[in-house]
Input
Amino acid sequence: MQRRGAGAVIFLLALVAVMLLVRLATLGSYPLMDTSEARYGEIARVMLTTGNFVTPQEVPGVPFWAKPPLYAWLSCASMLLLGVSEFALRLPSWLCAIGVLALSYSWSASMAQSRQAGAGSLDAPLTLALLASSVLFFVSAGAVMTDPSLALCSTGMLAAFHHVVIAGKNSPIWRWGFFAAAGLAMLAKGPVILLYAGLPILLWALWTGRIVHAWRALPWLSGTVLAALLCVPWYVLAEQRTPGFLQYFLLGEHVMRFLQPGWGGDMYGTAHAEPLGTIWLHLAGALGASTVLLLAAALLGARALIAAQGRITGLAPERRFLLLAALVPIVFFTFAGNIIWTYVLPALAPLSVLLASLLGPRIEQSRGWRYFTLATLALAGASVCAAIFVWVPRHVARHSSAELAEAWRGQERLAPGDLFFLGRKAPASLRFYTRVAVHTVTDPEAALQDIDQDRYLALAPARVPEVIAIAAARAKNLSVEEIGHNEDLALLHLHAAAVTPPAGAPR
Output
């Protein structure tokens, strides 16, 4: 039994190591993709080049109010050390993933210790394998976005609360780390941390009747001061630099976005009007093949509930906390229409700890459960690794301007000219990879006016025939050549050809 358990531990840890190494090796193997990843990468690059570390800017001089700057600060630090590259931009997300795994391991190990499991317990290694092989966790570990740092902060708060309040540990690292994580979470994504950590903690205290105990276990007053010292100065400076930020960010991004489907006040994109309950489909997509393990654990829980005649009062406090931490955000977003799948990410760590605590004893005792669980995890890991090598590069190439920018640089060396974009705002990847100021025009007629030298025009592929027709009608000596295109963008070279005078005409 111990030998089989040791073999399972080795398999699980090897799977985690492979997933992490594959993700690290592929951080710089494909370009930034529009819209979100390229946008956040360009914001970090602009922050580094302008030296303005207070106000994130997608375009120099235009503030980006949608998110706090922690992701950009981390990317800037990485670029200072490694240079401007996809690898440097994505490395902080990989490091955040390592942090989430470490916190989840300590949380799960503490859970196993509470049920007096031996040193060979599978709970903690199983937690790591569930997390590392999940689709969303693997993707976020190498994507330029705000969610990895938020997941690190929320997991830090939840794990610290477990260690101090539930497990009774009095370590200053956990007691003060809880509030440090809270302050950093406000710099990662803002007050949404109250949903991912604050609400589960409050509900747990009410459910277990331990409000007084929770209050005494943590230094709430002095700890709140610590959290405020970490985040409030930036919020004050941000509002002073760009008045109106607080109203848009706190009210628009954290209230209207979720209460009003198709919210029209979004300044940086299109609201996602999804059917209510879509978040559960996002959860299944985030877990990938491991969704089967979630269903199996739910079945085990349902059977235990039936055996207990519907009474859940006997559920251990630590499992109640895990259940709340995993499900409260999902239930909340069940009634929100404006959602995306990354909203599931902070819930994956407590969900993995919970699943491991339910499945760990089963796979230790049953060969069938062990083979079923390990095979499912192997399939999950193999699927995402195959996708990162086969599917992702092709998908990204269709939605990134990296190749078009390279074609533009080669052409522009021979025929210098300004770069224009036909539309409201040029794609972030076009700005990131060209490293030039991209002029924007909303009218194709204006894009073709006063062309006395070469000009380059980026636009949606569907609008290319329109521009060619306008060029043909306006100037016979204006040539239009397509340099390249992908699914989102086409790049044209507009050239005012010299008019050859008739034979015998004076020169």
Remarks:
- Strands lie at 57-59, 62-63, 418-422, 439-441, 455-459, 478-485, 490-496.
- The mean pLDDT is 89.
- The first strand starts at residue 57 and ends at 59.
